[in-house]
Amino acid sequence: MNYGFYLSTAGAITSMRRLDTVANNLANSNTVGFKADIMSMTARLPENLENGGIYSDTNAALDALGGGTLFLPNQIDLSQGALRRTDNPLDAAIEGDAFFMLESPEGGADRLLTRAGAFARDAAGRLVLATSGTAVLGEDGKPIVLSDDLASVRIDARGRVFQGESEIGKLALVTPDSTANLRKEGRDAIRLLGGRTNDASADASVHQGHVEESTVDPVAALAELVKVSRSLEFSTRLMQTQDQMTGRLIDTFGRFS
Amino acid sequence: MSYIALNTAATGLSALSTSLDVTANNLANANTTGFKSSRVNFEDLYYQELAQPGISAGAAVQRPTGLYVGLGTRAAGTQLNFAQGATETTNQPFDLLIEGDGFFEVELPDDISEGRGYTRAGNFTLNSEGELVMANSPGFRVRADFTVPPEATDVSVGTDGVVSAMLPGSVEPTELGQLTLVRFINPAGLESRGSNIYTQTEASGEAIESNPGEEGAGFIRQGALEASNVDPVTELVTLIKTQRVFEMNSQVIQAANEALQNISNIRAF
Description:
Chain A has helices at residues 3-27, 47-50, 60-65, 218-253; strands at residues 37-43, 69-76, 83-85, 92-95, 99-102, 111-114, 119-121, 127-129, 153-155, 160-163, 166-170, 173-176, 182-186, 189-192, 197-199, 205-208, 210-212. Chain A is α+β, with helices and mostly antiparallel strands. In chain B, 39% of the residues are buried. By secondary structure, chain B is an alpha+beta fold. Chains A and B meet through α1, β2, β13 and α4 of A and α1, β1, β3, β4 and α2 of B.
């Protein structure tokens, strides 16, 4: 059939995926510690070559066309978000290359990481994410338990947690061995698939009383939105044109009298 | 499908309208004694795995291990900010300020949270029986082991919560009783009940009773009130941000709508 029709369809499908991603980025412009998704597309090889075939003269015209476009997995934009001052003693923002670690609900081997430093204290006194209530882990791999004493909590730049004069724990600050293994899980968690974590370098610092804003850039997101809308329009318009061409073909040659 | 984008943007709008409601309530209570501001915490929703059709084949194309598209955001909850509000000196004998983390306990009707409520609004007054009550409309009684006799003058409340007064026929002040405070391991988990009242929840933990000045419950200061801790600048910045992000999410809805319209028009006659 009309090869171009499928190329345009691939374009339309890709545009819709892009739209979904832009929508998610923009919906999370207010989510503390949110890291925007970066989209990438790649040109597809013609079907013949993709299936391991060889370039042949009979297919030359089609093979030269390429195979349309393909939406690659989203990358996570790990750039630093702006720090916003909240003066809440249980808020901590990371500046630099590091993540907080979360307790894995099912206790699996995968590590859960987050940059969402809006913490709270639960009824058991544990330091937890204010959103999902997941416990934040200390360096020893156990949740940090704040004592009964309501004296003000202090978190220093290295992530050490003090209550009054005594140090009661140190927040785990880690970096993943490979950012390619990171997969967003929702509920502010990023799962590190099968990877290992290393201790973060001393350059990464924790700022108490601050939260890290979402890294979504509204200007870029809206520009992307315009581009995506138009690109989808082009693709669908081309699909229409090709459909009409096919229709004309049938009308012209398929008529029996 | 663009349906995802449509729904994703809708989750944004709904979470943002919650944020707008909370900001509105914070600003409306910028003058409420002992009011504690709230903030909305957003979290991202689940990520859906999508696989684009036709990618499994293709030796030359790197096959994506997975394609995840997020499904939006959610207002996961509100968090009370218990930072100390500014001190307003009033010189009224029954205006009490807590300098620290404690709460006064007040007696609610028995069907509400077992009759136990907590407040930081220390604008108290006496009722006709000489009991200490909240000066706002319901006038809940403050839990205390004393009443103030009508003939008492110069009622004073010490920083440690000891209440004393001058009684006729005595040159020394007479001790009337002791005000206690309670505190919570997780005050942010308290439930706001209106009328400046909080009640205990599973998240806040049990109320821990202590005397003022002990175990972080804070000292009592007579003749002063705690102003609302709402910071108008922060709230207005939040308001502006909320409004703009709301607009951007509406744009996504429009774009998704146009996308669907384009798709539905592919098959033209």
